[in-house]
Amino acid sequence: MKGHVEYLDANDAITSFFARAGHTARVAIDTEGASFHKFVDRIYLIQLSTVDRHAIIDPLPIAPPAALGKMLEDPSVEVIFHDADYDLRLLHQDYGWQVRSIFDTRVAAQLLGITSFGLAALLEQYFGVKLDKKHQRADWSMRPLTPGMLEYAAQDTVHLLGLRDRLADELKKKKRWTWAEEEFLRLEGTRWPAEAPGTAFLRVKGARDLTRRELALLRELVIWRDALALQVDKASFRVVGNEVLLEISRLAPAERVALAAIKGMPRGIVERHGTDVLAAVKRGLAVSEADLPRFPKSKRWARDPDFDTKVSRLKTARDEAAKRLEIDPGVLCSRDRMEIVARAVPRTVDELSALGELRRWQVNELGDAFVAALKGFKP
Fold first, then answer.
1. Helix residue ranges per DSSP H, 83-136
2. Residues 307 and 343: beta-carbon distance below 8 Å
3. I need a surface site. Which of 95, 103, 254, 263 has the fewest CB within 10 A?
4. Burial profile 275-310: b = 16 or more Cβ within 10 angstroms, e = fewer
5. Rounded distance between C-alpha atoms, residue 47 and residue 59, angstroms
6. Neighbouring residues of 171: CB distance < 8 A, sequence distance ≥ 6
7. Residue 47 host element (H or E)
8. Which residues of 137-154 are buried (b: 16+ CB within 10 A; e: fewer)?
9. Which residues of 69-86 are buried (b: 16+ CB within 10 A; e: fewer)?
10. Cα three-residue angle 30-35-40, rounded to 5 degrees
């Protein structure tokens, strides 16, 4: 371990730590949730490192650490994450914080063309440090945490400042620093969007393969399953998996025997909650034809016989640029962005830029090639 790590689980300890830390120009942050174990995820641990201090904050027994929030929202403090997306969502959900001045080492690595961009791979590549992955799926809501779990958690930030510097140097050498700045700026304000009540069933993988009647059953079953998961505070798949709910929706069992015969149906759920599951099936069957749920209609595009050809030409142009830049083609430009460009058929780089679908750095690297690839086609 690189330096002493303080474990902070009292309000006075938090106050003392940040008083001693004073103003810092950079701080590395990581959080631990428990989405693999709990229905409603939240932050169960916060790891942070400055140039000369390392700490693990246990947020369960303390008030919201306002001093940390002030630091993270201070635009003069650079906040370093590895794969910031989920951390940012949890920090906003639990504390309402909007982190500013972000540096994401995963994003930086991808922009450099590094294909093994997980934190463990990067730390081994740059520092020869091997992370022990045995606590990767640990339940961070448990207390007390074992010394091994704390050791594992601390390693997520103690090397991040050094990794940030190495990646930043390479970005500047490759003249991709402005790429990274644009990507980091877009991370600010990352949060979970508000979800309309009762629409979670639409996000179940495989739901689009169901009939509208089967979808009505799935809606009722997901509402039942998620209510139970919330009550017992377990991840929903640990109560009943989505594949089982899809099969119940297709078969519409009317009796416990038929319900119990479904592959993967937990015996304990049948015994304790079988009546509730069958009631959910009945509710789904009782929905009138006019009220059967459906997926929101996606935007319809006019039939374009040249669409596939245009996308193919853009893909060829993108892949050639990716090879030249030694970067993953999907990082350089995703297929959905190329499809939007193909429909618009911009005639100039300015028109391409005005679409607002590509970053400035992407326009700079791909603009001329994309315009040339679409020359002769009509929007």
1. 84-95, 105-111, 119-127
2. yes
3. 263
4. eebbebbebbeebeeeeebeeeeeeeeeeeeeeeeb
5. 11
6. 108, 111, 112, 177, 179, 180
7. strand 45-49
8. ebebbeeebeeebbebbb
9. bebbbbeebbbbbbebee
10. 110
Amino acid at 179: W
Q: Are 311 and 338 in contact (CB under 8 A)?
A: yes
Q: How far apart are the first and last CA of the chain?
A: 58
Amino acid at site 128: G
Of 106, 108, 315, 86, which is closest to residue 190 (Cα–Cα)?
Answer: 86
Residue pair 262/251 in contact (Cβ under 8 Å)? The answer is yes
Burial of 175 (0-12, 13-18, 19+ CB in 10 A): exposed
8 A C-beta contact, residue 27 and residue 55: no
C-alpha 107: how far from chain center: 13
Which amino acid, residue 239? V
Query: 3-state class of 196 per DSSP?
Result: coil
Per-residue pLDDT tens digits of the chain, which is 379 residues long? 456 899 999 999 999 999 988 889 999 999 999 888 888 889 999 999 999 899 999 999 999 999 999 999 999 999 999 999 999 999 999 999 999 999 999 999 999 999 999 999 999 999 998 887 777 778 899 999 998 899 888 888 999 999 999 999 999 999 999 999 999 999 998 998 887 778 899 999 999 999 999 999 999 999 999 999 999 988 999 999 999 999 999 999 999 999 999 999 999 999 999 999 999 999 999 999 999 999 988 777 778 899 999 999 999 999 999 999 999 999 999 999 999 999 999 999 999 999 999 999 999 999 999 999 999 998 7
Residue 146 is given by DSSP the state: P
For strands 78-81 and 26-32, give the pairing: parallel
Q: What is the DSSP string of 54-84?
A: EEEE--SSS---HHHHHHHT-TTSEEEESSH
Question: Which pair of structure tokens corresponds to residue 246?
Answer: 């899809």
pTM of the complete model: 0.87
Q: What is the DSSP letter of 55?
A: E
